[in-house]
Amino acid sequence: MLWVCYNFNGYPYDRYVIAKEGNNMRRKDREVNDVKEIESILAGCKTANVAMIDEGAPYVVPLSYGYELADGRLTLYFHSAKEGRKIDVLKRNPAVCFSIFREGEPVRAETPCNFGYCFSSVIGNGKAEFVEDIEEKKYALGKMFLQQAGERVDFTEAQADAVCVFKVVSEDFAGKRKAKM
Predict the structure, then answer these.
(1) What are the two backbone dihedrals, phi and then psi, of residue 156, each rounded to the nearest 5 degrees?
(2) CB-based contacts of 62: which residues, under 8 Å, 6+ apart?
(3) Closest CA to 3 of 21, 27, 30, 26
(4) Global confidence as pTM
(5) Cα–Cα distance between 24 and 49 in angstroms, integer?
(6) Could you tell me if residue 68 is inside a domain?
(7) 76-124 residue pLDDT tens
(8) Is residue 132 part of a domain?
(9) Is 9 inside a domain boundary?
(10) What's the CATH code of the domain at 144?
(11) Into how many domains does the chain fold?
């Protein structure tokens, strides 16, 4: 299966065809394939940048998240107010991409052109799904609180009912790292 990227006028870019199966990462030396390393990156971050298309234009929102990684499937959980631009956009078009990254530090060199930056990241594509089941909402909120605060908390029905919860399920994600030399 191939993903074809379209420009804002709806015409495909001929040079931007992305193969969904098989990772086409240019820098294979930075590719992270080990699930434990990917989980380590996810566990060390607090914010996911979630990008979507709003009436033909890109729109990206930084969101706190919780996650689950099992059997090659990454599920990201998010919460927000029940209304707003993000919710409207996701209802019209649930296709998203995400970027989660851990800041590193500069790598200095003798010349400015050889400077760099250490980092680790997970990027991917998926589809946003609104969570309506109250038990799943409580579970998702618990995952988010654990990720954000490092504590396990049980949420009440009223608390879960007061917010919008959505998840992005992805089987199309990759890790990347530029390690300190």
Answers:
(1) -85, 165
(2) 47, 48, 49, 50
(3) 21
(4) 0.82
(5) 21
(6) yes
(7) 999 999 999 999 999 999 999 999 998 777 777 788 877 777 788 899 9
(8) yes
(9) no
(10) 2.30.110.10
(11) 1
Structural domain of residue 83, as residue ranges? 29-178
Can you read off the two tokens belonging to residue 162?
């007061």
What lies within 8 Å, CB to CB, of 49 at 6+ separation is 60, 61, 62, 63, 98, 99, 100
Express each pLDDT in 46-78 by its tens digit: 999 999 999 999 999 999 999 999 998 999 999
Beta-carbon contacts of residue 89 (< 8 Å; ≥ 6 apart)? 52, 53, 54, 59
Q: What is the helix (H) or strand (E) element at residue 91, kind and residue range?
A: helix 85-92
Going by C-alpha positions, the residue among 146, 147, 100 that lies closest to residue 124 is 100
Total Cβ atoms within 10 A of residue 142: 18
E-assigned strand segments in the chain: 2-6, 12-19, 31-32, 47-54, 57-64, 66-70, 73-80, 95-102, 106-107, 116-117, 119-131, 164-178
Rounded-to-10 torsion of CA 120, 100, 67, 169: -120
**Residue 75 covered by a domain:** yes
| CA neighbor of 144 nearest in space, from 72, 88, 74, 64 | 64
Cα Rg of the chain, angstroms: 18
